[in-house]
Amino acid sequence: MSAFTVPWSRRVRSLTRTLVPGVVWLGAVLLLVNLAGRRTAIPILRGVAEELRYTVSAETRGRIQRVAVVANQAVEPGQVVAVLDDRDLLLKLTTARNELERLRAELDRAGAVEVRRGIERRVQTDADLRRFARDIEQSHIDTLEAKAQQGEDRIKLQGLELRLERSKGLATSQLARGARLDDDRTARNALKARIEERRAVIAEMQIRLESAKKRYASYVNEARAPDAQTVSPVLLRPLEHAIKAQEARLARIDHEIRQLVLRAPTRGVVAQVLMRDGEVVRAGDPIVEVVEPLPGTVVAWIPEEQPIVVVAGQRVVLSRSTGPTIETRVARVGRRVVPLPRRMLTDLGRPQWGTQVNVSLPKGVTARPGEAFVVRLLPPE
To answer: What would the mean pLDDT of 28-53 be, rounded to a whole number?
Structure first.
């Protein structure tokens, strides 16, 4: 072996001393780059514009007479969307009227008894007391009859409103002339005016009723008749209780009239019509769904397996298939883990869970309910 040959062991030690520092330095650089990349990575979530749905449900059991809206139709608050059949209610009104007639006959009978008793004792004083009492009950019955007529007119008004809505639709589609629409509107307005006039008449009847009661009380005090205290318990108490029962029935009928007409709870668009004309519904059965047309938030979900921390007020950037990006902030963060909607599932074969995040849509930014968004979370300030 030559004197100038370097042993292999020495060569390996020399190479190791040369390469190891460089490898260590390069690894440290790569680690720093990786950590920096992780710190600056922006978490991305999927979301949709929130759908606020309102369900219009039947308030009582009955048969649907007419559904007045169709899917995707715009509606205003209070607009009629469906009407239930009113035939059963008309029968109840007839029964209430017959009961009023029975009370009238009973009142006439009590008056006849009074005539006979007035001849036998204290004719003038006793007859006056009875006449005042009869005036009270007569005013009461007249008021009830006016209320019954008012209820019947309200039912007719609901029918005219429904017919007017249909006439508007036909006039829009050029299936009917404007004269039919004008006739329906005129009839509706005339019936409304009659209802308002009768309301004033009922108020005047109430005033007359109170006046009759005061006259009766005043006459009793002036006459100081011993028999005066027995008038109401003996003859008039049954009528008083019957009239109170009739008042309760009429109040119930008035409430049922309002329940027959279903109205839109808010301004929006009809999402679904769940029932058709002629179908029988129970109280609480949904008939129409209305969706608010302008969502106020975008709803996103953080999958359970992603360790992302989000706080209310955190800045985010929204983007969608068209239009510029939108910078806004997180409005609310859910406090529990919930099942992800089907649209947000990455694997339809298994259930997935996550946390709901609501992101505000700035004023002036419009979105369609259910529209897809990409939500980029910016670092907290």
So the answer is: 69
In the chain, ranges of CATH 2.40.30 domains: 44-51+293-377
- Assigned CATH for 86-257: 1.10.287
Is residue 7 over pLDDT 90? no
Contact at 8 Å (CB) between 250 and 151? Answer: yes
Give residue-wise pLDDT tens across range 85-108. Answer: 888 877 887 788 788 778 777 777
Q: Are the C-beta atoms of 61 and 273 separated by less than 8 Å?
A: no
> How many Å apart are CA 374 and CA 317, to the nearest integer?
8
Q: What's the pLDDT at 313?
A: 92
Q: Who wins on pLDDT, 299 or 154?
A: 299
**What mean pLDDT do residues 2-25 have?**
59
Strand order in the sheet with 261-263: 261-263, 80-84, 62-67, 280-281
| Contact between 257 and 158 (Cβ < 8 Å) | yes
Instruction: Outline which parts of the chain fall under CATH 1.10.287.
Output: 86-257
Tell me the pTM.
0.52
Give residue 151's pLDDT: 76
For domain 44-51+293-377, give the CATH number: 2.40.30
d(CA 13, CA 251): 106
